[in-house]
Each structure stands twice: as structure tokens, then as C-alpha cells.
Amino acid sequence: MTRVYGLSRDLDLWGDLMELGKKETQSQQNTENNPTGLKILWSELRRDKLALFSLILLIVIVVFVYGISFVMNQDEIAKVDLFSIHKPPSKEFILGTDYGGRDVFGQLIIGTRNSLSIGFLVTFLSGVIGVAFGLVAGYFGGHIDNILMRVLDFFQVLPFIMLVIVFVSIVPNYTIIAFSLIFTAFSWMGVARLIRSKALQEKELDYVQASKTLGTSHFKIIFREVMPNISSLIIVTMTLNLASNIGLESGLSFLGFGFPESTPSLGTLLSYATNPQTLEHRWWIWFPAAVMILVLMLAVRNVGEALRRATDARQRRG
Amino acid sequence: MAILEVKDLKIYFPIKAGLLNRTVDHIKAVDGVSFQIEQGKTYGLVGESGSGKSTIGRGIIGLEKITSGKVYFNGVDITSKNGKEIRKNLQMIFQDPYSSLNPRKRILDIIAEPLRNFERLTKKEEIKRIEELLELVGLSKESMMKYPHQFSGGQRQRIGIARAIALKPKLIIADEPVSALDVSVQAQVLNFMQDIQKELGLTYLFISHDLGIVKHFCDEISIMYKGRYVEQGTKEEIFNHPQHIYTKRLLSAIPDMNPSNRDKQFRIRKKVQQEFDQRYHDYFDSEGLAYSLKPISETHLVALQEDVQKVR
Fold first, then answer.
1. Rounded to a whole number, what is the distance in Å from the CA of B126 to chain A's nearest CA?
2. How far lies A56's CA from each of A46, A47, A179, A295, B212, in Å?
3. What's the domain of life for this entry (chain B) (predicted)?
4. pTM of the shown model
């Protein structure tokens, strides 16, 4: 019972995170007896070399991108320079320039930063809304569940891309925050459904019933008792969602409904490839952006898959 | 006055079916049950699985919706509204010590949960109370910082008991508190429950399917079958003068340790089986349910058909 039991139940993300550092030395022995969820996640990650490599790569890219973009001047990069149009990679421009004479490397870094920021923000916001919504629906059940799920159904049948494009074109001040909020409004439903199904299971367990008889409020039971017990599911879902959310902004920018050209974006760089000339002769404009998107999404996905496996004892490698 | 009085309690579960999810029928989990428990006594509720004994307990404490009937606690009607005062005085011990403790919480937080809900204690007072409670249930102070999975089944059940008695309740509903434990630990937990009953003046509603334990533990016993009472009486009445065939069958099924009684036991079982086959309809109605209870002495009630009694 220890291992199977431990994985779905025993996951206290933040508490263990704190402990992990402290108990590093004795962790080897501890994992044998009663592995807590986070330790299982970590050991699974360590055993899956691809996932471990992905995680390290991801951390390096994130630190690098946020670090460099800190010292970069976005206005400078977005400035059109007619004397340096379509320059191939050189000492001055590491990755050359685009049709406006703008530095592609700078655009790549800022674009990656924007994509990552939007990915993190959308994942976090939709996670918070989805988890709260799903927990409430699943925990109370009955009529409340019915009403909430119909609301969710309504959101799910809306033509997502079309509405986003409409919103994007009517929002006057188009920033990362605005973009994330619009996306969040249409991407919390999957999380909510998943969490609801788990909460439906969880609320039948005796410890929830016990808390009710002990006079604990519903709010406390939902967020202090039930939520910590499904935290492994939350982490895994959020990680896998992150992989798809990173590509969100690029996809829309590629279609021309994302950020304006004054805001560098991976999608804008990619869309230059629709010009056959650029596609064939100026690889430095679109190729790095394509690789960046691919690497980011694959890396996050690898990590997410390893975490997902860790929550299922039968699929674990360790 | 009785501390708990249940009058004609009915708990039905709807059976939903069809496209519109309409209620097509009901499962009568509890079908018209009445009883009362005196202060300081232990009242046993016995029946096979699915007979509705747990549902009664859960209905009283408010975990199941009561379809009809009344529940009085100390003379106050608690059928629909569960005031804070009542919650405090009515606690429950759960069947499964593995799922009834939140695996994410320390023992300290588990036992402190009722205290934090009902009493304003400082951190120091709280720790002191929990130390007392842990000592009462025979666990060390150090257990406080551990998690539930670090304890054995018996220890976990005692932690569940410590949580239930933390507020010094008057009535505890014990829903098969030992059926998940092995026999040696069962005795340990039961003796302990009896000790704290004396110490704190508790009243138990003891739900069980184990007649041996009930005999050891309870003052009054009622036998349930398919949501209805078939027999109700004191321990002596039920065990020495069972009247209903269902009770007789249950009692004859208790294994006897002494091998020299083997043939005798076998004959008794055979006789009971014969009576069951021949007189089935004297004890159960056309739907196979028990009749309503008829008193045959001051405390002893049996579910019999009117005329059967006269025949006797």
C-alpha cells in the first residue's frame, strides 16, 4: 500500500519542496519507506534521462531568455533600419535581419519571452479558475454541479478561435496581460472537467465525511482537505497544458491576429516564411523561431509526460 | 430522558433512470425505524451488510438526507438543522481507519480540527489538549508531528477516536469501528472505548455486524434486516430468548470454539433452518420484508405477524 497509496495521496507540493532541500542526505532511505508524491515525481524525472535533459534545457532557456531580454531595448529592436534589410547572420547581427532591417536575434529573444510569459500566465490563470470551478462542482455535486457544468458546456461550444480574434481586434491596449486574460477565458474548461471528476471521487472518502461531522466549513474542506490530496493531478495537468499554451501566441501571431509587428513575436518571425523568397533564401529569419517553438514545446511535454507517468505506479520506470 | 430519540426514521435513495434521469423508484435503505438511547448506555445496531445500519448512523449525524421521521437529541429536534452545539455533542468514529484520516495532514492538525472549529485556543493550549488526548488513547507525544501512514491500523483508529472525543461529546456514533482491524487489535480498541466511556460518561451508538463484539460491548441491541428492525431488546433477551427467525439464524451462525459441542451446534443450526423453511411467511411479508415491531415484554420487541403471536 505504501507506494500506490503514497503517490496519489501523499503529495504536498510546497511542504515537500521546503523539506527536499533539508533532507537531501537522508532522502535515499526515506523514499524506500514512505515516498511522498514530490519525491516520486523527482525520482521519476531523474530516471527518465530525456525528461531530465528537457528540464535542464528548459531552465537554461528560461533563465537565458529572461536574463537577456532584461538588458535588451525592445524599441531599439523594433526600429526599422532601411540600410540593413535582409542582412545574413554576421558579427553585428548574430541572426541577421528581417525585411525591416530589424535584428532577428533580438526579436527571437523578446518573442520567446513573450511566448513563455503568455504560456505561464495562461496556464496559471486557467489552472486557478479550472481547479476552483472543478472542485466546487465535484464537491457539492447535485444541482450545483449540474448548473456549473452547463455553464462550462456553454464555454466549450463557443467557437474559440473566432471569438479570440474578435476580442483581439476590439481590445484597444494590446498587452501580454490582455492577451492572457482573453485566452484564459476559453481554456480553463479542460482543467475544470478533470478536477471535477477527481473531486467527485475524493468527496466520498471518509476523511471528507469526517471533516463534515467535525464541523469544518465547506470552503475549508474543499481547499484545505481535498485540494492537497489531488495536487499531483493538478501539477501534471498544468505542466502538460503549459506545453500547448506556449504555442498559443505564436499560432495567433502567425495568422496575423497576435501582437502587432512592433512587438516581436515568434509567430511573426515564422509568418515571414510564407514569403517564398524568405523561405528559400533567408533561413535565418524563420528557422531559429521554428526550432525555438519546437524545442520549448517538446521539452515541457517531456517533463509533463514523466510527471504523468509518476502518478501511475504501473507506468513508472523506477 | 433519552439522550437520542429516533422516531419512524426513513431514508430512501432514489433510483434514476431514463433519458431525463427521472426518479423511477426508491431504495428503502432505512424504512421506519424508531429507537431511543439512554445516557451512558451502549446501543448496538446489528445487521448484515446492506441492511441500512450504517445509513441510520449517517442519517442521525447529517451525512445522509433524511426522507421522513424525526431525530431528537436531548429533546431537541435535529432532523433538518444541525446547530453548532449539536455538532459538538454528536461525533462519529468511522469504519475505515485508512481513509478517515487525511493523509496530507499531521496528527496534530487532524486532532486539532474539531478544536479549531469550535474552541478558541491558543497554540499552547491546543498542544496541551492534544497531548492529553494522545495520552488518553495511548499514543506518545511524538506522534503529533507524524503523518497517518506512519501508524498501524489500530493506532490510526485510536487517532480517529481521539479526534471524536476531542470536544467531549455526549454521544458517539461508532460505525463498525473495529471491522477493519485484526482480532487482537479489535479487543484492544474495544476495551479502550469502554474505558473512555466510563471516564467521560459517553453514550455509544454501536453499529456492527459482529455479534460476538456486540455481546461483549452493548447493553441494548437491535437486529436489522433490509432497512427494518426485526428484533429489539436487552442483550440478555436477544441472546438468550431470540424470537425472530432472522435473529435465531444469526445467533446459530456464531461459531463455537469447543469441538465437543460440534454435533449440538449442528443440530441447532438444522432446527433453525427447518423452522426458517417452514414458517418463512410467519416472519416475512410477501416482499420478504419484516413486519412491524410488536412488544412481547417491556423492553423486548419483535417483528411478527399479529396472529402468529396468538397461535403460540
1. 16
2. 11, 14, 28, 12, 62
3. Bacteria
4. 0.80
Q: Which of A106, A107, A85 is nearest to A97 (CA)?
A: A85
Task: With beta carbons under 8 A apart, name residues in chain B contacting A214.
Answer: 87, 91, 113-114, 117, 163
> Three cell numbers at B219?
447493553
Give the CA distances from residue A29 to residues A32, A35, B10, in Å, rounded to whole numbers and listed in that order.
5, 9, 53
- For residues A139-160, average pLDDT: 92
Q: Do B63 and A209 touch (CB under 8 A)?
A: yes
> Which residues on B lie below 8 Å from A11 (Cβ)?
104
Distance from CA of A142 to the nearest CA of B (A): 12
Q: ipTM, 2 decimals? A: 0.82
DSSP per position, A178-192: HHHHHHHTTTSHHHH
- Contact residues on chain B for A228, CB-CB shorter than 8 A: 104
What structural domains and CATH numbers belong to chain B? Answer: 4-226 (3.40.50.300), 244-312 (no CATH)
Contact yes or no for A35/A252 (Cβ under 8 A): no
Q: Of A82, A110, A107, give the one whose Cα is nearest residue A93.
A: A107
Distance in angstroms (rounded) separating the CA atoms of residues B173 and B205: 5
Give the tens place of pLDDT for each residue, A66-103. 998 888 777 777 777 777 777 788 777 778 787 777 88
Residue A42 to chain B, least CA–CA distance (Å)? 18
* Residue in chain B nearest A231 by alpha carbon: B104
A260 vs B187, higher pLDDT = B187
